[in-house]
Queue: 2 jobs
Job 1
Amino acid sequence: MDTEDVPLIPVKTVGITFNLKTGHSEEEEEYDPLETILALKTEVERYGFDVLLFNQDDNFLESLSKNRPDFVLNIAEGRGNTRSREAQVPCILESLGIPYSGSDALALGMTLDKYTTGQYLRARGVAVPGQVLLDRLDRLEDPMLETLFRENRRYIVKPRWEGSSKGVFADSVVSNPSKLRERARFILKRYDEPALVEEFLPNDEVTVAVAGNGRPRTLGIMRILPREECEGVFLYSIERKRQWRECMRYENGDALPRPVRRAIEAEALKAFEALELRDLARIDLRLDWDGMPRVIDVNPLPGLNPEFGDLPILFELNGGDYQSLIRILLEEAFSRCGLLWKDAVRHA
């Protein structure tokens, strides 16, 4: 990082904004356990900053206003179940004039909505699966649904605006109109939001770390595989994520052919730039029937738990470590915000 180009805006206090997971309910699926918060606090303190913790609870705005940090490392997912909830904390920080890490409110609000993201990326030339939106129960009777299966395709049915595989279960992949209607009805009633019907891509699932501003770069590829051969199709469902030690196997992307790796990285970078993401993100892709990658999800707020977060696991599989990953996030955000890094860092 070229500190000579960074305006001298010193930082003494760094806040961490988050939603604390207090139990095991589905409503808190995207929230972070205390272990994640403490791990981030340790890494930020490593560079000599004072750290303040801000849980997005009923006292959040008052606490933030009274104990205003110079900069915020934001991992807050937002409260409630609206599609713009990930934009809540960034909007507050922007209104208070507090610089923060990660993508802005517009990007966060957009990317949680999988249908809007898919349609926008398609328009920008990024390869994505085909999508159909079912936003009312009466649309389940549309004869068009029968035509989807003429080429023996499978589809995944999932909520329109959820993260962390919430609403994606082992039986979410369907191969006939009857099952599609059943899963869509379940989504509409259980989550009170539209059901997204998306082409299910049959080959490898991978995820890519992307960092940077202006000229983003990839930090590595991770293949996401079942620990044992599974009947039918493999889906990185919520059940598998919750039991990742028993069910999952993660590998770096070295086993993939070089042209495929290049294509994966190219699509991930195209998505990152098209959505104007910032600092650090994770892009999920699957390989289609021809072995070519398509973007299936965009994560501008990637999980940062050092033990089970996909991004830290990916980074370690590609030769990095947790300390270096968080340093990249901080350096990118400080540089983008014009904040002084050099004088604050304590070189241990």
Job 2
Amino acid sequence: MKFVKAKLLMVIGMLTWFFTGCSNPALSVVKPSGEVGKMQLNLIYLSTAIMTLVTVVVAVIYIYVVIRFRERPGDTHIPKQVEGSTVLEIVWTVIPIILLIILAVPTVSTTFQIEKRPAPSQHPVQINVTGYQYWWKFNYPQAGITTANEVHIPAGRPIEFVMQSHDVIHAFWVPSLGGKRDLEPGRMNRLILKADKPGTYEGKCTELCGASHALMNFRVIAHQTAEYDAWIRSMQKVNSQAKSVLAKEGQRLVGQNCIGCHAIRNGGYKVLGGKGPELTAFGQRTRIAGVLDNNPQNLRAWLQNPQNVKPGSRMPSFAHLEKKQIDALVEYLESLKGSSQ
């Protein structure tokens, strides 16, 4: 019975080890798409090589000693007793020190390199990041725009993320680009990243922050420089006025139910809320609440029961509204695009 349990535990352990590699490739540190990610991967390779070397050497010595000095039938003599060995003690002290130096030198050097702020000649982009339970606010002070849960950047240029938390401790991590960095209330932290090529890179909060910590996702969307500049212009000149009759009803309902917490610029609203994610150009985002694909069906489900999607979210339910009112909200919110759309 004990043998069966041991085999079962071994199988479970092997499956657990195997399936840890079955993750989203956009969340992989071993496929870096940024300078910082590549430097950190080199440190991972170095530390793995050192640990593997130590493990192999210790295992070989252990196996040799077990076989060489095992008890043999008829052998009753007492082996030579050795009390201390200056040579061995020096060897097993010096070797770990050397290994630590081999690991420490590139680690310290890399740390200083990734902390170095980019020169003005590199045309860095500053993006202010604020973590909330359970969403992300991205503000572009140089362009005067704000978005949520999706951050757009130009590929090939350094991005300086200036980060803080609104409530509890969060952590900003984009595995393919590098990181991570904590966001703490009352304290500013910085992180310099750069995407080598255009693409969509997944990010997550990696500091346990509440019920929906695992759903506190965001996306980094890297563009060619011309596309990024066009996106900035489209956000600066956005038109949030409804066009269809149904969307106009939705715009009115947003003013009654949503605008106290959310902001929609150039929509004719006298109040721009700041407690929830900004909804300007919401219709061109790829996801809703960082979790659901952005489409009318999912938006309807989110409005009617946010807690079912993100437990602990401060977003209230709009299940009290009639179906045609929900349809109007969906129509208006999905119509919000940048000016070039």
